[in-house]
Amino acid sequence: MFTDMQNNFLQRKKSILSKIDKSHKSSWDGKIRKLCGKINSDDNYYTTSSCSGRIVLMIEQEKKGMGLFLKSYHELISFEELKKNLAEIVKNNFKLIKFKMESCILHVACRKLKNAEEIYEKAKLAGWKKSGIISTKRSFVAELISTERLEFPIINKKKILVDDEFLKLVVKGSNDKLKRSWEKIKKLEKFL
């Protein structure tokens, strides 16, 4: 027999998984979809947010808000594509713009602390080194984050701050970091 708390967990899971995607991308990342499906098929877990890793060009601002992301990539990028997008942005923007490469991230609501500890340990083994457990009144959330990251100012007052040689290094480094992030997604999927 399920307790009230267990029933509430399953009700919240059903409610969360039936909601419309409100992320900037408005859809699941293909590279993390299978992992999320595997987690969501277990009665002890459900995902609340996920990203397989991305590269963004965004307006530098303290608070998050609408219209900050000028360009977002969820795949590998080329030097030519990045250069073209920077040229478009520099024409129309006087603000400070930053380049940001972020690794995979996943938030998983867990029925019990024991479940959160289990997925946390598996994530650590798979290389998601910046992971932790957040306790709330209603549930435990495993916040699973990998370590691949790169961030720096790239445009200021309609001027690109770096040369082509630096941009080529950034493209290679970012693509390598995205690939490592995607490997960690596959690794965690095997551990579950």
Instruction: Find the count of extended strands (DSSP E, 2+ residues).
Output: 9
Number of helices, where a helix is a run of at least 4 consecutive DSSP H or I residues: 5
User: Could you say what the CATH architecture is?
Assistant: 2-Layer Sandwich
> How would you spell out the order of helices and strands?
HHEEEHEEHEEEEH
Biggest sheet: strands side by side, in what order?
3-2-4-8-9
The oligomeric state is single chain
**What class would the helix/strand composition place it in?**
alpha+beta
Shape: elongated
| Poorly predicted runs of 5 or more residues | none
Alpha carbon gap, first and last residue: 26 Å
Helix content: 40-55%
- What name goes with the CATH superfamily? tRNA wybutosine-synthesizing-like
Mean pLDDT: 90
Task: Work out the count of structural domains.
Answer: 1
Largest sheet features: 5 strands, antiparallel
**CATH uppermost class:** Alpha Beta
- Give Rg in angstroms: 19 Å
Indicate the proportion of strand residues.
Answer: 25-35%
CATH fold-level label: SSo0622-like fold
What's the structural blueprint in terms of helices and strands?
Blueprint: H1 4-18, H2 30-40, E1 45-51, E2 54-59, E3 69-73, H3 79-92, E4 97-102, E5 105-110, H4 113-125, E6 132-135, E7 140-145, E8 149-156, E9 159-160, H5 164-191
Antiparallel strand pairs: 1-5, 2-3, 2-4, 4-8, 5-7, 6-7, 8-9
Helix pairs in contact: 2-5
Description:
- By secondary structure, the protein is of the alpha+beta class.
- The chain has one domain: 2-Layer Sandwich (SSo0622-like fold), CATH 3.30.1960.10.
- It has helices at residues 4-18, 30-40, 79-92, 113-125, 164-191, and strands at residues 45-51, 54-59, 69-73, 97-102, 105-110, 132-135, 140-145, 149-156, 159-160.
- The strands form two sheets. It has a five-stranded antiparallel β-sheet with strand order 3-2-4-8-9.
- Strand 8 and strand 9 (159-160) form a beta hairpin.
- Helix 2 packs parallel to helix 5.
- It starts with a helix and ends with a helix.
